[in-house]
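Consider this today:
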Amino acid sequence: MGKRECSTASVGVKIKLSDVVSQINETHFALIKTMLWDGWIEDENDYFNEVYSSIVWDDMPQDHEEAKEYLTHAFTHQGTYHKSRSSAAIPTLDYGCLWDQYLLVPLHTLLSCERWGHDRYGTNSTSRPIDFDVLIHSNPYKDIEHTVVVLMLRLHSG
């Protein structure tokens, strides 16, 4: 069947996970859940995203107070993995916990490029004219404090 690799350049928001969780309340909870589900951790070559996705997607409570408590505990007590050559994943806080990591949430995709196949080597590329406004005027997260609009690149393999 092969493997899919996708690179995407987007404009979005960046916010520390501790700032996201601290703003969970009845008013912002639905919006923050969307941020958590749509976003990923700014993570160059660690395994923070693997830990993050298991926390957010597996057992997150639907009540805002329970979710805030659950996420605070999970993000302060979990970090990344050490992976051995035998593929054993050992949890570690050697590189810090998720609480101190940054969440990237895309708002507008600028470019995307995919490749498929078994053990592909080489270069794929794409382009588009610079006919877009990099600033996001309809930021749905404008009521969430401590967000910064950023240009982001995501490489996803699976």
About this structure: Strands lie at 3-16, 40-41, 80-83, 89-92, 102-117, 148-157.
